Amino acid sequence: MVCCLNVEIDLRIGLVCRWYPPEDWGGVATYVHALASGLRDYGHDVTVLTSTLDKSLINTEHFENQIRIMRIRRFRFPWFVHRLYMIGRQATSVTQLAYNVRLVPVLRRLVERLKLDIIEYADVNGEGAFHRWVSPLIPYVVRLQSPLFVLEKFYTSFETMSSYKLTALMEKHAIVHASTLISPSRSMAGIIADVCGIKVNQIRVMANPLDPEYLAPLPASREFNFPPNTVLYLGRLEKRKGAFVFAEAIPIVQRAVPDGFFVFAGPDRHSPYGWSSRAEIEKYLFDKEVPADRILFLGQVPRSKLRACYSEPTLVVIPSLYEAYPYSVIEAMSCGASVVASDCYGIPEVINHGVTGLLAKAGDSADLADCVINLLRNPSRRHQLAVAGRKFVREECSPRRIAALTTQVYFETVRDYRSKDRRIQNRVNPIVS
To answer: Taking 80 as the threshold, does the pLDDT of residue 253 lie above it?
Structure first.
């Protein structure tokens, strides 16, 4: 394969991630899906190696929209194992270790058969920890999203019910030994550099790509028929996502805007005390005398209805206490929503305060309420923010744009990796500049 920095090239790329649609639509899975689509459109041969709980799909290989998808078994302990004393705390990490080890022979065969040029892993769960046993000839990239050793401090033991120390070791090993690191935000790059002892200028920064479906025209129907002055929170009902901050802001907003309507859209999770977050929020709002008919809990919203859910409310709030580069923000902005989000970590790198959205102090329910009230009372400003936000996201997070930037990084990584070792250069087809 002959390539040059100044021309478009075709690479054989492996994207390895335990999560992938349609079984999973979390942030990491959404990223891999969007990147795979962008790289395919850019002319590369893309293979995604992922996992499945569907017995009919285990060890299968097929093409989805010209992307090769391979699925291996995802093992899970029965729910009661996680409740066992001591053993249950380690069950998640042991499961991930077994999965990472099982990846090695699968990837080795894949590299030999498809002649892959480069492999990209997500940082979460350290799936690239054993890459050196896959092939010494293939460099690998780690995309920084939010490894568990970063996220763990935002959760209590009641929320996670697991220990991630073993997983953290695998994540750090994969990061430290990667040929290249890519981060969606400068904030994430700084965190990883500090924790892993890496120079921050060695980490490439580029935005997360928007999933292609969000580039299509918005649906015309009103799926949810939200009333005027609807404020939507879309995310898991948990502390880190800011569900309790939003709940505390609701009574303040409701007093200022009596016809405000507040929607929680997302699955319930354990609260910091181990109870149902939804139950605690409902009790709090009842105690604050917020009318029950002004609150709606939608639960998990199907992927097919997400765009309608983002586009129909008056505004969307993302009050997270931590986000590297949140898909909830860029998806909402792409759908033309006015967005109020926290001013923490990677979010200010997405939202330009007062231009593409509003930023509230993280964890400050009063400041969040002030921002929400401001926009509910000012339709023209909401419109300006929505238009600017939609334009920004569709330009900066275009899958084609991110694929072009990623291609450049991949090529430089392969070239530099092969040029460091003459033995490797002589055993593979060299890339010629």
So the answer is: yes
